[in-house]
UniProtKB/TrEMBL annotation:
InterPro entries assigned to the protein according to its UniProt record, in alphabetical order: ATPase_NBD (IPR043129), ROK (IPR000600), WH-like_DNA-bd_sf (IPR036388), WH_DNA-bd_sf (IPR036390)
UniProt family annotation: Belongs to the ROK (NagC/XylR) family.
Domain of life according to the entry: Bacteria
Keyword Zinc-finger: no
The organism of origin for this protein: Anaeromassilibacillus senegalensis
Function (record text): Transcriptional repressor of xylose-utilizing enzymes.
Keywords of the record: Carbohydrate metabolism, Xylose metabolism
Pfam hit, one: ROK
Keyword set includes Nucleus: no
The protein's name in its UniProt record: ROK family transcriptional regulator
Length: 404
């Protein structure tokens, strides 16, 4: 099978396999690695000795003997490298710094000065990166890069944000190059929905899933990303995954993308608030009817009332969940992913909504053309996207490791 791959490529591939195995299964013995990768113990030892010499891997004790000497176990050297991940939203810039095992060692957030335009936002972001690295006193030379994720559309190859509707008048912004120039660290820019899915594949429940689809459900938008064997399926010019703009109601309201009845016009904070306030104005019974200004009702109030059993709020959320489940079912029918992961503020902050969506999705699993309906909530909640940015940085670093 590997006949026409040259030995250089094969060694690089073995290195990835070995390193990835240690990362996912540590502590790991050379024998386990060899068995997993279909390699000889000698070939594994040859590569792991170089990983040890480079300080990327460390010996972490002895395992059980299977006859003879007890094997030395290997693990990732947590403090040999660090990565920075940032989730940029219209509201805030959330930053996390992790060690080489993707354990968070520092986190902070700052309000996004959205009205002051992209130059000011990126200057503040760069400042935040540099001061955070200083604050925890790690060696800046050990920082392998900065990952930034934000709303789509974007061009991940060139690291450019492409006029997302929620960032009014920003136009195309070269986020990757700007942060690279201002901080001196290699940077990556990608969609937040890609980050959310990658975090789950690299560090969460989708570990080992051959195919997974991530939904990112925020107050004003629904994003998506399909992962196949851990790789993001990009489609032509990176356009794949935009599940929020699949049409679920041809007679629906106009969407920011120009179409009508897109999923994200129906799974949407403003729409939900409108529905509840209209109900209140029509005199429907609700605990929120005591509120003075029906037009000033908030998402938080609706979620809280629904959690406490309020029928008006529950019915409105039920309808929103039904639309989201149509989107989930469409994805399950099209791609049959092993796992569908739900993340984003609407899921992480509001347990009642997350619960009804998962329940409703699971009721659909007997449909003939839906072979798998394994819907789960994300693992990292408010840090999901920032950790996804970390996954993008680590992935790029792992691919580029050279030992000779
Ligand atoms: Zn749309």
């Amino acid at each position: 099978m590997l006949g026409n791959i040259n030995s250089e490529t094969m060694r690089a591939t073995n290195l990835q396999v070995i390193f990835d195995y240690i990362r996912r299964n540590e502590p790991a013995s050379r024998r386990d690695i060899a068995e997993f990768g279909g390699l000889t113990v000698a070939a594994v030892s040859n590569i792991t000795s170089k990983l040890l010499a480079n300080g990327l891997v460390v010996e972490v004790g002895a395992g059980e003997s299977v006859g003879g000497r007890r094997p030395t176990l290997l693990g990732i050297n947590a403090d040999c490298r660090y990565a920075v991940g940032i989730d940029l939203t219209t509201k805030q810039m959330k930053l996390v710094i992790t060690n080489f095992k993707a354990q968070i060692i520092y986190e902070c957030a700052r309000e996004t000065p959205l009205d002051r335009g992209p130059d000011v936002v990126l200057a503040e972001m760069a400042h935040m990166i540099k001061t955070s690295i200083q604050a925890i006193g790690i060696d800046p030379q050990k920082v392998i890069g900065v990952g930034i994720v934000s709303a789509g559309p974007c061009d991940p190859e060139r690291g450019i944000m492409q006029s997302p509707p929620n960032f009014p008048d920003w136009g195309d912004v070269p986020i990757r190059d700007s942060i690279q120039e201002q901080t001196g660290y290699p940077a990556i820019f990608d969609k937040d929905s890609v980050g959310a899915a990658m975090a789950e594949y690299w560090f969460g429940k989708a570990d080992g899933c051959r195919s997974a689809f991530g939904f990112l459900i925020n107050r004003a938008g629904v994003g998506g990303a399909l992962l196949v064997d851990g790789e993001v399926f990009r489609g032509f010019r990176g356009g794949a995954g935009e599940v929020g703009h699949t049409i679920v109601d041809i007679h629906g309201a106009k969407c920011s993308c120009g179409n009508y009845g897109c999923l994200e016009t129906l799974v949407n904070e403003q729409r939900l608030i409108r529905e509840v306030s209209t109900g209140l104005k029509m005199g429907q019974k609700s605990t929120l009817s005591v509120v003075e200004d029906y037009d000033a009702i908030t998402l938080k109030q609706i979620m809280q009332a629904a959690g406490e059993g309020d029928t008006l709020c529950r019915d409105a959320l039920d309808r929103m969940a039904d639309y989201l489940v149509v989107g989930i079912r469409n994805i399950a029918t099209l791609f049959s992913p092993e796992m569908i992961v739900l993340s984003g503020g609407m899921i992480s902050k509001y347990a009642y909504f997350a619960k009804i969506v998962v329940e409703k999705a699971k009721q659909r699993q007997r449909e003939k053309f839906v072979k798998c309906m394994n819907v789960v909530e994300c693992s990292f909640h408010e840090n999901q996207c920032a950790l996804g940015a970390i996954a993008l940085v680590l992935e790029k670093f792992y691919r580029s490791i050279q030992l000779d």
